[in-house]
Amino acid sequence: MELTHAIASRQAPRAMSPNGAVRDLPDEAATAELARELALFVRPGDCLAISGDLGSGKTALARGLIQALGPQGANLDVPSPTFTLVQTYDDTRVAVAHFDFYRLNDPAELAETGFHDLLESHLTLVEWPDRLPGELPEDRLEVALEIAGTGRRARLTGHGTWRARLARVEAARRFLLDSAWAAARRLHLNGDASYRRYERLVADDGGTAVLMDMPARPDGPAIRDGRSYGAIAHLAENCRAVVAINTGLRQAGLSAPELYALDMAQGFLLIEDFGDRLYGRMMADGEDVCEPMAAAVTLLADMAERDWPRSMPLPDGTEYVLADYDDDALNIELSLLADWFWPLVKGEPIPNDLREEFHAAWGIVLPAARSDAPVWVLRDYHSPNLIWLPEREGIARVGLLDAQDCVFGHPAYDLASLLQDARVDIPGSVARDLFDYYCAMRQARSSFDRAAFEAAYAVLGAQRATKILGIFARLSRRDGKHGYLRHLARVSRTLESSLSHPALAPVRQWLDRHLPASARSAAVQRLPHTT
User: Are residues 217 and 167 in the same domain?
Assistant: First the structure.
């Protein structure tokens, strides 16, 4: 285990009420630090009620939080809204509505500010919240500021869902205080569509690390045989999976982030920072990615020829056992199309008989995707999770992120993930050349049945596209993340390409009858946020 500083929560927790915390703020820098810390946790729809006497620092805290949400390095102008009552910021990482109700004389004025609408769409910062009796949402964070000697004191109280979130804020702080990165500057780091949260830590000497905040995934309702969706799909339940998979990949000579420190009970990891040269970003910036893509394909060919362990030891003496990417997991992922994409296109739930026909068709084709020699399948081997590390050598130049959902399965799955990317366009000619390159490497190393691999590649590519159509529809309809809708057309085209393989004839027939490409395309064009 390559841990330079393993954490076991040795520091005694700071005294804290069941739903609150106290912070001493001896100077303006400490107030700004608290603002930057809170900015790491906020999201649209949050409400922060900031109270205190005149001069206690309410506007300073709000200004610091808004500036922390602005572009890095920008000195965002944040005037006090004392006279205007509200000031909005729509170009920050989270849109903000900053209210100051000190001069609110008539509750009728509240409607004129758009307060209730902005509560839904923005992070709302409310100074003088006592002027709004009964108007604040149940889910909110209260920050009460008071003069304390030559400085200030902040009393933080979480209400509703903010109780648990404030506890997480404090737990992250304690974890970092007990690490070698206690004095590092904490910056927001973009994640993806998961429940994990990331920060980049920057030390005074310029060194960096990444904080992964991965609480145990809440198990959903039982939907089949007493098991939840996550259990059936074999999704990582906690950070034990990250520790195990990263360790196994590094032992194989691959570039997964090194683990610097961990608290598996709390779900915090300090890991190596690979930087910002994500494949997806390089593609978006028009960089030449021929060499990085070839290296990523070479890595998969190498993985396919290895014997991978079924379990990995963990620092606490337990073992992490990898699951098989079995038919139950593949089918529960396929059900996402019926559950989420069908209603998005059709405007109504899928009839039960058509759902059964859909899964029956897949039951005929899935055997083509079984492997007699399963390998580690990372499942998210695509442009958002690959980082180019040109200073390294060979396949170690491919940095691997978010591999915690790794399972045992067919090696064609990760190749389909790479060459049929849901978020960026991989030209068909480039994908075919890289596919041929992969097959040539496999044929040079061992007996390799290309025809069987092509069938598995088509089936798993179609399965993955089907799943992603459902996931992106769910992210929009359930989670309000409508930006993913812009990728639906690309994923639908990828699905149509895979369906041309004869192995998928039963699935193609079902889709042609009930959800043809033309209907998918027309429906996607009508959706918001698809351009």
Answer: no
